[in-house]
Specification:
twelve-stranded antiparallel barrel; Porin; mainly beta; 1 helix; 12% helix
Length: 256
Amino acid sequence: MKKIKLLAALLGAILTLNCAVFAAKDSKEKDKGENVVLPDTELVDIPTAGILDYYGFQVKTRAYSGGGVVGGLNFGVLERLNLGTAMMVDRLIGSASPIKMRKPEIQVKFRFFDGGYYIPAAAVGYDGQGYYYNSDSKKYIEKGRGLYIVGSKEAGISNFVLHGGFNVPDFDATLLFGFLGANYTLEDKISFIAEFDSLFHKEADRARFNVGTRIYITPYFQLDMGIRELNAHGELAENWPRKRERIVQLRYNTNF
């Protein structure tokens, strides 16, 4: 109990400090007349070709079913290179027990092309963070994205962006998956998201359709609300039924 109280106090202190830093930064940006949101690095689940700026820093937390939380840290270590890590904690929220912390997973993204008039911006990366951890097999039922390549391009309408790519989540199985998504941002205040994930699988019913809304509370602080697997039916694996999942995610961007 003491550990939980200490953790809550520490998280509260960090959040308070971040809010203070953000307030000062936001005030300066408004004085300059700047109020433009930063590029999206991901939608609900799928990545985009967007990256953090050099010296950029992002903290994100996602609450998912069963009281679990996925936390992530990402850094713009070079002009085109982002490095980060993510970690899942099952049953952190609520009264269920025991709380289980899963091993951290690495995340890497390198944007190798900024795009042109006809050609989309493109990035290659790796993301090991999966979902639905099976303690018996010590593997994720929904594997991490693994190695991927993604392109992003504004499509005819201002602020309407298409994203698509391919990924290989398991090098042993060597299955090629695909993903496709789009988002429309309205007046830099709210973005509407839809995506298809896990395409081209040998079992077609494994494809996922996700939707979400991203609210830009400030240019640096975002609130995501989404529903995963709207087309859910059948089973992910034995004794793991597929079902719709509501998620809430907070994302905060700053510089270091």
